[in-house]
Write a structure and sequence with these properties.
Elements (H helix, E strand, L loop, with lengths): L4 H12 L3 H14 L12 H16 L4 H17 L7 H16 L5 H24 L1
Helix pairs in contact: 1-3, 2-3, 2-5, 4-6, 5-6
The structure holds protoporphyrin IX containing FE.
Protoporphyrin IX containing FE binds next to helix 3, helix 4 and helix 5.
Keywords: Heme, Iron, Metal-binding, Oxygen transport, Transport
Organism: Actinomadura hallensis
InterPro entries: Globin, Globin-like_sf, Globin/Proto
Length: about 140
Amino acid sequence: MCVDPQKLKDNFALVGANGLDVAEYFYADLFAREPGLRTMFPAAMAKQHEVLLAALSQIVSSVDDPDALVPFLRDLGRRHHEFGVVGDHYGPVGASLLATLAYFSGPEWNEELERDWTAAYEIVAKVMSEAAVAS
Ligand code: HEM
C-alpha cells in the first residue's frame, strides 16, 4: 500500500480520542447521505457504535500487517454479505468515513491524509467485497 501506515495510525489515535462520538457522527452522516441504508441497521445503535469503532481500530492497528489484516477483512466481508451488503454500498460508507475523519481531525486534516485514507479504504472495501463474492 503506497501510504504511510504510521500517519494513518497517528490520525486514527487523534480521531479515536473522541470515543463513541466518532461512530455517532459517522452513522448520522451515512443516514443523511443515504437514508435508504437506515433500515439495514438495528433501531438501537449503541452496540453498533461500539463494534464499528472496535473494527476500525483493529483494521488500523494491523494496516501494516497483511497476514493479520486480510483474514480479518475477508471474514468481515463474508459476514457483511450475509447482512445484505453489496458492492454499491461501499461508496457511501467510504464517503461518510472520510467525512468523519476530516471532521474530528479538525485543523490536522490535509490532502495527504485524505489521499491515504481514500487509498486504504479502497483496499478494505476491495478485500471485503471480493471475499463476499467468493463465499
Ligand atoms: C470499513 C468497512 C466496514 C467496517 C469496518 C464495518 C464494521 C462492522 C462491524 C464490526 C459490524 C458488526 C458485525 C460483524 O462484526 O460482523 C458491522 C455490521 C454491519 N454493517 Fe458494517 N462495516 C463496514 C462496512 C459496511 C458497509 C459498506 C455497509 C453497508 C451499508 C455495512 C453495513 C452493516 C450492517 C447492515 C451490519 C449489521 C447490523 C446488524 O444488523 O446488527 N457495513 N459492520
